[in-house]
């Protein structure tokens, strides 16, 4: 089921990446990029310069938005030229990546890994913007309160965690039943020993 009031992943979770944007009607990302009205690439370079960075010192992806009656974002352009276009970038400095990955320099494998993480962050934020955030409710019995598992930005993750939680509950109950069975058997054994003595 969908979460009624999902947390903004940019506000409530730690992220290594920074999302910058330039959109007059939407204000939900990390930082607004100053608009010099040259080009997105030049504005991005100016933004980085203000942060004492160069374009070659970051791993980044452009982020595109489709806005019609709803909003969705992606790292690839949308097919509709009227209701979509590039609105921001997501980036991380290579210095932060070296610290995160514990490496002296960023090789192609780390760069590809970083790009995959950037895409996953955009996908996560897209789920939030589209209100496609999942939650699961697990009720162990009629006497107990529900256990809510909220803020899943991927349906498969929600299902996997719910299955894992259910398996854990079943395993706990089986262990409890085994302990109860052993207790009953021990009590019966003690009573039979007492009868014989």
Structure explained in plain terms:
This protein is of the alpha+beta class and 197 residues long. It folds into two domains: 121 residues, no CATH class; 61 residues, no CATH class. It is built from five helices and seven strands; from the N terminus they run H-E-E-H-E-E-E-H-H-E-E-H. It has a five-stranded mixed β-sheet with strand order 2-1-5-3-4. A two-stranded antiparallel sheet has the order 6-7. Strand 6 and strand 7 form a beta hairpin. The longest helix has 42 residues. The protein is elongated and about 85 Å long. The termini are far apart.
Note the total helix count. 5
Summed over residues and divided by their number, the pLDDT gives a mean of 78
Structural class: alpha+beta
The total count of strands amounts to 7
> Quaternary arrangement of the chains shown?
single chain
Return Rg in Å: 26 Å
- Tell me roughly what share of residues is in helical segments: 40-55%
- Major β-sheet, in short? 5 strands, mixed
How is the largest sheet built, in terms of strand order? 2-1-5-3-4
Q: Any low-confidence stretches, pLDDT <50, length ≥5? A: none
Element string (H = helix, E = strand): HEEHEEEHHEEH
Number of domains: 2
Q: Which of globular, elongated, flat, extended, rod-shaped describes the shape?
A: elongated
Strand content: 15-25%
End-to-end gap: 62 Å
């Amino acid at each position: 089921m969908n979460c009624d009031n999902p947390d903004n992943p940019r506000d409530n979770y730690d992220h290594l990446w920074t999302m910058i944007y330039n959109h007059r009607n939407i204000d939900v990302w990390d930082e607004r990029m100053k608009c010099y009205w040259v080009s997105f690439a030049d504005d991005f370079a100016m933004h980085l310069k203000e942060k004492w960075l160069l374009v070659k010192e970051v791993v980044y992806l452009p982020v595109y938005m489709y806005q019609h009656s709803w909003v969705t974002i992606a790292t690839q352009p949308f097919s509709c030229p009227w209701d979509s276009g590039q609105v921001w970038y997501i980036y991380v400095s290579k210095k932060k990546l070296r610290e995160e990955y514990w490496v002296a320099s960023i090789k192609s494998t780390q760069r590809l890994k970083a790009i995959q993480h950037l895409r996953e962050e955009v996908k996560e934020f897209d789920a939030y913007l589209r209100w496609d955030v999942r939650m699961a409710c697990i009720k162990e019995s009629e006497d107990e309160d529900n256990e809510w598992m909220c803020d899943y930005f991927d349906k498969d993750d929600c299902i996997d965690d719910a299955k894992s939680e259910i398996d854990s509950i079943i395993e706990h109950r089986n262990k409890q039943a085994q302990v109860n069975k052993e207790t009953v058997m021990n009590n019966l054994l003690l009573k039979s020993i007492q009868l014989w003595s």
